[in-house]
């Protein structure tokens, strides 16, 4: 991946990146759509344990991509809405919901426009999955949006890449190579995708942001939400570093005896 520094970025480059990768992701082994058709539940055990029973709850999934996690919550009994700024992703999510006969609503909108796009509707759970916050420039604005979307007594559940991951070297994961406190914007250029690194693609420039753990917590608390849980985990979903080893649970960790750093974190915060 090449960092482009202050080079001018075309308007809508992030949306173009995601739009182009929808068919690529649908065809990838990473997302395993055939496996999902057979058993439409890709939620991780730590997520379902920390969220709890969602039967009958109104759940909103922000930045839902083509809806695998969203539909997994529907499979577990929630009344779900998925929202994403990529129209091709939402079209694919709707098609997948129809195919699986799972009740779900999907809406095309930027995350910051969600309250207006949903006409002021509120939810029992607002869920945001792994790999979402790095696309958002304004974390305080995001947290305020979440607070507006929650019904009193509802809660935010966030499962996200730990910000430490983003500043370590790609090979070992043991050396700091970037500034932890450099928020960005960071402009990158790379072909392919995390789901298929060798794919040929045209929309390859993205703008991303680095949010420290303190910034995330401060934004959530600043929006008036009450922090209930903050967990740091020593595992992740992909072989982010060459030294990681996949366990029987499908998660990746540093090998036994190696120094560890947090790789994921989860946060739960309630609206009074």
Q: Would you summarize the structure shown here?
A:
By secondary structure, the protein is of the alpha/beta class. It has one domain (2-270): Rossmann fold (3-Layer(aba) Sandwich), CATH 3.40.50.150. The chain has helices at 13-26, 33-38, 45-51, 68-75, 87-100, 114-117, 139-149, 213-222, and strands at residues 2-3, 58-62, 79-84, 104-108, 123-128, 150-161, 186-189, 205-208, 226-233, 245-246, 252-253, 264-270.
How would you describe the overall organization of this protein?
- By secondary structure, the protein is α/β, with parallel strands linked by helices.
- The chain has one domain (2-270): Vaccinia Virus protein VP39 (Rossmann fold), CATH 3.40.50.
- Helix content is 27%, strand content 23%.
- It contains eight helices and twelve strands.
- It has helices spanning 13-26, 33-38, 45-51, 68-75, 87-100, 114-117, 139-149, 213-222, and strands at residues 2-3, 58-62, 79-84, 104-108, 123-128, 150-161, 186-189, 205-208, 226-233, 245-246, 252-253, 264-270.
- The strands form three sheets. A seven-stranded mixed beta sheet has the order 4-3-2-5-6-12-9, sandwiched between helices. A three-stranded antiparallel beta sheet has the order 1-7-8. The protein has a two-stranded antiparallel ribbon with strand order 10-11.
- Strand 3, helix 5 and strand 4 form a beta-alpha-beta unit.
């Amino acid at each position: 991946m090449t960092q482009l520094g202050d080079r001018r970025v075309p308007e809508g480059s992030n949306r173009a990146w995601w739009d182009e990768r929808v068919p690529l992701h649908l065809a990838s082994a990473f997302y395993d759509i055939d496996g999902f058709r057979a058993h439409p539940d890709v939620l991780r055990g730590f997520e379902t344990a920390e969220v709890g029973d969602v039967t009958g709850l109104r759940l909103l999934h922000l930045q839902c991509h083509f809806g695998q996690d969203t539909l997994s919550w529907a499979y577990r009994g929630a009344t779900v809405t998925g929202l994403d700024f990529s129209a091709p992703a939402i079209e694919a999510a709707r098609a997948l919901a129809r195919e699986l006969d799972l009740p779900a609503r999907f809406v095309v909108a930027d995350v910051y426009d969600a309250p207006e796009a949903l006409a002021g509707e509120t939810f029992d759970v607002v869920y945001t999955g792994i790999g979402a916050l790095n696309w958002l420039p304004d974390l305080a604005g995001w947290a305020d949006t979440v607070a507006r979307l929650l019904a009193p007594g509802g809660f935010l559940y966030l499962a996200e890449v730990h910000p430490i991951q983003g500043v370590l070297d790609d090979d070992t994961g043991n050396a700091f190579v970037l500034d932890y406190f450099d928020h960005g914007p960071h402009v990158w250029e790379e072909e392919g995708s995390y789901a298929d690194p060798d794919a040929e693609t045209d929309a390859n420039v993205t703008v991303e942001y680095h949010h420290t753990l303190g910034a995330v917590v401060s934004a959530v608390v600043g929006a008036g939400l009450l922090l209930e849980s903050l967990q740091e985990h020593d595992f992740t979903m992909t072989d982010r570093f060459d030294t990681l080893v996949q366990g029987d649970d499908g998660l990746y960790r540093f090998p036994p005896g190696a120094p560890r750093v947090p790789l994921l974190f989860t946060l739960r915060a309630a609206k009074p």
